[in-house]
Structures are given as C-alpha cells and as structure tokens.
Amino acid sequence: MRPAAALAILTLLSACSSDSPAASEHGGTSETGTTGTGTSGPDTSTGEPTGGEDPEDLTCKHGPWDSGKPIAMPELPGGDPAAGYTALLNEDYVSCGIPWELFGFAEDVLGVEEPLPGRTGKNAEVGHAWNVVSLEDGSELVVSNCLQCHAGYFNGELIVGLGKASADFTTSLSDFAEPLPDLPEINQANASFNKFKARAAALGPYSTMMTIGANPAVMFAIVLLSHRDPVTLAWNDEPLYELSTELVLPADPPPWWRVGKKASNFANGMSRRDHRGTMVLASSLCTDSVEEAAPIVDYFADIQAYIASLEAPSYPFAIDEALAADGAEVFECNCAGCHGTYADDPKAESFPNLLIPIDVIGTDPSFARQAAEGGFYHHLRQWFNDSYYGMFSEVVTDDPTPGYTAPPLDGIWATAPYFHNGSVPSIALVLDSTARPTTWRRLDYDSTNFDEAALGWPWQPAMAWNDAPESERKFIYDTTLFGYGNGGHTFGDHLDDTERRALLEYLKTL
Asked: For the whole prediction, is pTM greater than 0.85?
C-alpha cells in the first residue's frame, strides 16, 4: 500500500483504500461448521425424515430457518433521500483529512478516481470518494466520504452502494503515519491533518488485514470507541479498553441496496433501533464531542433514507429464463426460508430478518463470539449503549443468541466474495462447501473478468499465507487464519449439479 493511500482510508471508520496495485478495478488487468443441510426432517441429528412424510416435502418445510431468531424492523426517523445524497457527497462528517493545497500531491500517489456526475465546484475536481469542505477560518479540507468503501466496480461500471472488493489494508497504517511531520497549525485545515495523522497511528496496530479485499471496519470501530469517553466522546490518547493485535477481525462491506429490507446493518445483527448511531460512529475518526456529533446525526436521517432507497442493479449478461425458472423452485424449497422471496412487485416480496445461531450457520464464528458475552470485544456493547449514540440506537451482540443474519439476496451476483468475511470467491462455492479452497487468490482485480457460470471472481489455488514470499502474501486468502475461515453454510451440499446450475441461474434474476 502506498503512504498516501494508507492515510486516505483512515478518514472513515469503514473507509476503503484505493485499488490494489495489481490491477485496475474498472478494466485492465477452515473452520467447518457442523450444521445440517436443510434437507432433513425434524430429526436433524440423523438427517432421516420421520413420521413417514415425503422427504422432498420435508426439504421444503424444514431447514436452518427453523432455528432462526427474528429481528424486528425498527421505526426510523423520516428523511429526504435527495437531501441525503447531497449530504453524503458534500458534508464534513469525518472532521479531518488532507488540506486542499496538498491534495494534488496526494492524488499523484493515490491515482485520480472517477468523479461522479452532477457535483459542482471543487467537488467536481476530486474523485467520487472525496468531499471538499470549507472550514470556519476559510481554509479548505479534503475529507473522504462513505463511497471510499461503498462504491465498487462491476463489469467496468462504478456502482454506488456496492462494496469495494479490491481495497488494500494489508500494511499497518502506523508505518506510514508516524514518519510524516506535523504541519504548522497556521489554519484549521493543517490542524485537522495533524489530528488525522495521529489517529492513523492509533488505528494502525489493530487494523492490518491479511489479504486485499478484507476490510477493517469492525476493528476501526472497536479501536476508536476504545479511545473515547462514551458520554462526552472526548478522545483519550491511551486506550481505555485492552486491544489486541492477535484478534484482528476482517469484514466484507455489504451492498447498500439491501438496507431497506434489513433490520440490522451488521453481519452479527448487532445494530438495533435507529441506525444513525452506528452509522455516525462509523465516520467518527475525528468527531470528538457531542456538539460535533449532534448535527451530523440530524442530517444522517436523510443519508439513511437515501441508502434505503437504493435498488439492486440488473444482471448485465444473458439469462437462461427456462433454467432460471427451474432454479426458482430450488430456491423456494431450500433458500427462501432464510433469505426471503422475490418478485417484480416489491410489495409481493417477503424477508424474515432471521439471526441464525453460530452452531447452525457454522460460518467463521470469530466476529460473533468476540463481540458476545465473554468475548474479548464485548465492551463495545456496553460502551455504545452507555454512549451518546445509545440514546437513540442500540447494540445487541448476543440477545437472543450470538449468530449471523441471513441477508437479502438482491443483486447477490455482483457482491463477490461471499460470507461476512469475504472468504468464498463465488456463489457456486457457497452452494458446495466441499469444493471451497483452503487458500486462494483472485486471478486479477479487473472487474470485467467475471465468472458467469460460478457467479464470482475467477480464482486460482495459492500456497499458505505463511509459506508465501512476503511480496505475495497480500494477494492470498488463507482460510486457516483467525477470522478468515470459510466453513459452514453447508445448506447447498445436498444439491446435485443440475440443481446448482439452475439455482445459480435464478440468482441472476434477483
């Protein structure tokens, strides 16, 4: 990772870095769960149907959804989606960044990002993931926005709301931040940069990912709240809670267009009630007082409304309609219980919002367990609920159980890699746990290089992360590492090849 890129990604808790140096994003170059497959009858210990019922009928009636715990949809404040889009791309909700006068030098290292149409003034001169803001003394600051992580490329097209799958967080941010000199604080922009640099040093040791594409959003949140007073939000240079360089959790940014259906915005279902609290916390790199946070919370009602208004893009390639129709039947029988139903009319759709217990879903348990009661990071629940943000939002990490939410599947074909930690490169492998590689790497980071049959990024086997040359490690996804497991979700293992092909074709229609 390049130094300026390392600093750029710090400006958002959930921010993502520039594209991997391996290729251009828009053209160019385990732990196994012990769950049932969803095909058995009530006696899931044996997998045998009981009571003389038709096994196929039981397949449709019973599955992991039987163990799911529903999360109630919250009542959210009203908001204006158009105003939210404007706020997203113009406001200073990060509160620190790079002085305008220095940003051109930063772009020489970062690379010039694709702009978004419709922006005016200096915002039209910067890439889509940056906002230019004027401070009280007239100095200008370039701050990152949510699109650092939530605008990705598919088939060469920039899609707002798609998680960026090529972000590179594999070098400690401290390595780049600490050697940089402070700027003379002759204006607010320079002072803001100095704070920005100091926060980089605080985050660095606890946010380094093992592979390109893994996102440290969860770790950023944990580190930032660990340095803050929950009531005043004042920053403390020394962490108030113990942190660990050994228990670093990776995440995979989910697409925004699912937000309107979801009761919680996190994989472990921990965000409850009004989500503005967790959303503003996610951009709180330098928001160090309630006085700063309160107006941001106000306009985040509009940003929340904008995000919830997004819809999934349409699959851009050919679809075999007859095969997809067969796949719809497979989906209804094996998947709809957890992931909902889909129709041309949104009013005809359903989504159950289920939290699936860890021992049922079987996917890497590190995030859910470390955040739950007895976990190393369980303090995040108490901190948040005691904090200013807890006045209107809530974090719940183990009630009624630690687990992971089954997400809606709108536009799932565009969101590789899969699982909450990005450990599986294609949907075909989600549906067949026996074929998942222990270690793998993408062939390249060209978003036009897409596997239409498997629905995911083309990949190849790789050597173990520890055995690889240091220069190659960042490209390797090793599922034996802490937090990176690709086991579990074995619910498609019983399907035959014909059923899987049909199901994959159906998923293209969502």
From this structure: yes
Q: Which two tokens stand for residue 287?
A: 């928001």
Rg (CA), the chain: 22
Query: What is the tens place of the pLDDT at every residue in 178-194?
Result: 887 899 999 999 999 99
Cα angle: 192, vertex 198, 204; to 5 degrees: 130
List pLDDT tens digits, range 373-414: 999 999 999 999 999 999 999 999 998 999 999 999 999 999
Show contacts of 440-445: CB within 8 Å, 24+ apart. Answer: 440/476, 440/477, 441/475, 441/476, 441/477, 442/213, 442/475, 444/22, 444/23, 444/28, 444/29, 445/19, 445/20, 445/22, 445/23, 445/24, 445/25, 445/28, 445/29, 445/166, 445/212
For residue 87, which of 305, 388, 287, 390 has the smallest C-alpha distance? 305
What are the residues facing 478 on neighbouring strands? 439
What's the burial of 51, exposed, middle or buried (CB within 10 Å: 0-12/13-18/19+)? exposed
pLDDT of residue 55: 47
For the cut 60, the answer to whether the pLDDT of residue 492 exceeds it is yes
Task: Using alpha carbons, list the distances in angstroms from residue 406 to 65, 104, 131, 269, 353.
Answer: 9, 43, 34, 9, 7
* Confidence (pLDDT) at 320: 98
The span from the first CA to the last CA of the chain, in angstroms, equals 35
Phi first, then psi: give them for residue 276, nearest 5 degrees: -60, -30
Q: Is 125 exposed, middle or buried (0-12, 13-18, 19+ CB in 10 A)?
A: middle
* CA 360 – CA 36 distance, rounded (Å): 7
- Is the pLDDT reported for residue 150 higher than 50? yes
